[in-house]
Amino acid sequence: MNCVICKQAETIEGKTTITLERDGLTLVIKNVPASVCPDCGEAYVTEAVTAQLLRTAEETAAAQAVVDVREYSSAR
Ligand SMILES: [Zn+2]
Hints:
Elements: E1 12-22, E2 25-36, E3 43-44, H1 47-62, E4 67-71
Parallel strand pairs: 2-4
Antiparallel strand pairs: 1-2, 2-3
Bound molecules: zinc ion.
Zinc ion binds at residues 3, 5-6, 8-9, 37, 39-40, 42.
């Protein structure tokens, strides 16, 4: 799709790093599948991936972590 931020380029399939902050937890998730703009670097993540990220954040917050870095996993 055409990037909605810069409108200069078509996004390409790639990976991005997402940082989530909630309830005092900072969670960094690497290798998240995304459509990435080669011009401005904006990453677009699907709703299904976002839902998975939020589940991961809730699990991590439940474990009382403060800072955690994970690889993206869609296995569960
Ligand atoms: Zn862009």
